[in-house]
Amino acid sequence: MTGTIPLQYFLVISTLMFFIGIYGFLTRKNLITMLMSIELILNSVNINFVAFNKYLYPQNLQGHFFTLIIIAIAAAEAAVAIAIIINIYRNFRSIDVDNVNEMKF
Amino acid sequence: MSINDFLTMRHELILTSLVLLVLIIDLNLKKSQKNRIIPITISLFFIHTVVGFLPAQTGMLFGGMYHTDGLTILMKNILNVGVLIILMQSVNWLKKEENSEKISEFFILLLSTLVGMNFMISSGDFLMLYLGLELATIPMAALAAYTHHQTRSAEAGIKLILSSALSSGILLFGLSLIYGSTGSIYFDTIGTLYSNAPMQVLAFIFFFTGMAFKISLVPFHLWTADVYEGSPVNVTSYFSVISKGASAFILIMVMFTVFHSIAYLWKDIVYLIAVMTMTIGNLFAIRQKNMKRFLAFSSIAQAGFILLGIISGNQIGMTATVYFVLVYIFSNLGAFGVVSAISAKTGKESMDDYDGLYATNPKLTLLMMLSVFSLAGIPPVAGFFGKFFLFTSAASGGYYWLIFIAVLNATISLYYYLLVVKAMFINKSDSPIAFFKSDTITRISLMVCAIGIFVLGFWSQLYEFINSFTFGILN
Description:
- The structure holds 2 protein chains of 2 kinds.
- By secondary structure, chain A is mostly helical.
- Chain A has one domain (about 5-90): Helix Hairpins.
- Chain A is about 75% helix and about 0% strand.
- In chain A, helix 1 (about 5-25) packs antiparallel against helix 2 and helix 2 packs antiparallel against helix 3 (about 60-90).
- Chain A starts with 6 loop residues before the first helix and ends in a 13-residue tail after the last helix.
- In chain A, about 30% of the residues are buried.
- Chain B is mainly alpha-helical.
- Chain B has one domain (about 5-465).
- Chain B is built from 21 helices and 2 strands.
- In chain B, a hairpin with a 4-residue loop joins strand 1 (about 60) and strand 2 (about 65-70).
- The interface of A and B includes residues 65, 84 and 91 of A.
């Protein structure tokens, strides 16, 4: 059952997702999109944990637990971030990072 | 597991119930009485701080996920004292009209982050470490955006939450690689299994990058100055002292317990980052005019000095780091206390506003002078001994060039710290900040800082007390 898809495939996917997330975070101008990029990063970590647990250490479930907790915390983080983004929108009338630049150097 | 075992995590339990208690009390207060939550919370937290010093039982809980020993209890007590001073300093600002409806939010958010830090310090595996780290970070973004009608505060909040979320993501990717290569998330097991396999080295670099974001080491420091400037002063002092201290504690413990087998590899990384952090932090601090931004860059430079204790990898290094953080708490809170007192009364935060302060507010000026002397490391005050022990530990590891660079940096830092002293004592001003008298609780907190700055340096039993708990890398 576990032999059908090699572990490497999962790792390639998760690494790609991780760096797409980093790239998106660094290039996007919209705050919501940046938040989505962070979700990509966290999900790549989840794939890693689940794949490692399933393929290498099926005798215990630490990887699965870690994934569940990451999902929960990502939700909390997104909630606070979106609340602050709404606040940004009220103050700046925009959620473009180019406008949120009152403080520099 | 009996109920008695739970008392091992007494610090966290008391603090959590304190947070809930504040929430419930606040719900039962009428709108006009919201101010009453301030003395209630501060006295409750004072009791918590005192109880924290009582002897506590040590041991493990949850199968090793949580552990306490003398060292973690000491670290928690240090943080408690710092938070108590910050709470006392924030009274003036909280009593302002604009904050009248959200006073309790400040306390609840701030104390929840402290719970997170306590769990982080006591963590025995990476899951607890991550949970504690997030509990210490997410409410902090809400704190940074506390004055929500100010554009700067909102900007600080978004900058903090986005960069800390990114750094958590990077840290987690490292953790997933560690899990994949060792099959465990427990510190003890990983410590025995860790080797210099490429994947494990990569995992360490990811992990270290994530942690470096949290203690704002160069080149991961860019969020620091903006967040510090935008947040309210008391929140800034919390960031720069408590949050940074807790992260430094956990970083040195993880480096010593988990990654000790690749110490010869991380020493090079830490060396480079220490040099960059001290130099860039100092050079940028010179050109700052806003006091909060100025202290932000100075705290970046201080984080570079903390790395000197980590790099040696021995027991002296760990003792020096804990001692330095303790001294740093008092000296930085002294400086922030003055900035906060002036900002709460007049709203002025620029260095130019401090011109001629000595003529009008001599006591505040003296405390500010003591604090910046302590931060710079001038002999009679405690900061000198903090830096001295860090240099000793680096010397015991044979890092003489690093010490040379650090001493050069201490000299540079003296220049910009003296700029503040010069502004207060020598510069003339047509309209200096008028004389004002702070209320009793603020003055007590400032007195505590001043006494701490003087006494900690000469109280040698303290160093030996810390030294009796610390440990070095085993090899």
